Amino acid sequence: HVEYAGIVPQLERLASRFGDDDLVIAESTNAGTDIHVLAVPLAYTYGRHVLLLVSPVPDKAMLCDFLDWARTRYRHVFFLGSGGTDVLSRRWSVEPVASEQFKVPEYQTTRWNDFPRFVKQKEFDYGVFEFEAPRPDAGDTFDLDVGVNDDLYVVRFQAKERTEGRTIRWTRYNSFLALKPFSGASRAVTIWMSSGGRPSAVPPAQVSVYLNARPGDATGSGEHLLGTVQVPTGFRMYTFDIPPEIAADAALADPPRLRIQTNTWNPHEALGSGDDRQLGVMIDRVQVR
142: part of which helix (H) or strand (E)? Predict the structure, then answer.
């Protein structure tokens, strides 16, 4: 067994996207993803200009000042991430360049004095985006196909998947969606969800949706509950009204965010499968109108 066998061609392919006069800003090691596994050799082996963010919720004013400077020094400024960092802002635009998924073998993680008993498949799922000057506001309509170039919009979701002909992500106990800035005229959020076939011994999926939630704020201050629903198996549309005063408050955020809170279950504990993730519900699409 070779640990991470096959990752070198993937790194070479990623490195070929960037030139000597480009800058790559990569996701923080605190974002809950493994982008640093790609970012560090990208810098030290392939000689690309790479910076790792310190926080998954960087200071927007400081980042804006840095991007203004970086665009005068580098031909392109890119972001490399996997859905764990809040970098959206009305002060710049971020356009998708590429999206990749691959798996490599990885030994089971054990205590230091125990041999691993099996080899797992470690999945890398990332997007490449380019920072650009701010673009005119497209209005109060937001439509996100979850699982397709969505890395900048999702925080604390599971990896991209395909099921029933759809691209989806599973939520965790608390998952966040960054929305494009809006003026406050939006009046509803619609989410396409499914519980994904929970076993009968597992409690039904209860989903609560909050607007203007901040991933780095454990107090829940400033967020508003839009509603709670029970989600069965099968994809359905669930619409949550946005009262005018809540929309006006969210319009001040940069960007406004949804928090999707769900009671989770573990397939390994419930079914004895090899899937040890904490799963909420499957999200297929999100619209704000």
Answer: strand 142-145
Instruction: Give me 285's structure tokens.
Output: 């699409």
Using DSSP bridges, classify how beta strands 224-231 and 205-211 pair: parallel, antiparallel or unpaired.
Answer: antiparallel
CB 240 within 8 A of CB 209: yes
Q: Give the pLDDT of residue 251.
A: 84
Q: 10 Å Cβ neighbour count for 59? A: 11
For residue range 35-51, what is the model confidence (pLDDT) as tens digits? 999 999 999 999 999 99
Q: Where are the alpha helices (DSSP H) in 74-107?
A: none
Which residue from 16, 37, 17 is spatially nearest to 26, judged by alpha carbons? 37
Q: Are 77 and 22 spatial neighbours (Cβ–Cβ below 8 Å)?
A: yes
How far from chain centre, in Å, is Cα 22?
24
The string of DSSP letters for 232-262 reads -SS-EEEEEE--HHHHHHHTTSSS-EEEEEE
Distance CA 174, CA 89 (A): 22
- The whole-number pLDDT of residue 217 equals 55
Q: How far apart are the first and last CA of the chain?
A: 51
Q: Per-residue pLDDT averaged across 86-102, rounded?
A: 89
What is the percent of the chain where pLDDT is above 70?
95
CB atoms within 10 A of CB 10: 15
Buried b (16+ CB within 10 A) or exposed e, 66-78: bbeebbeebebbb
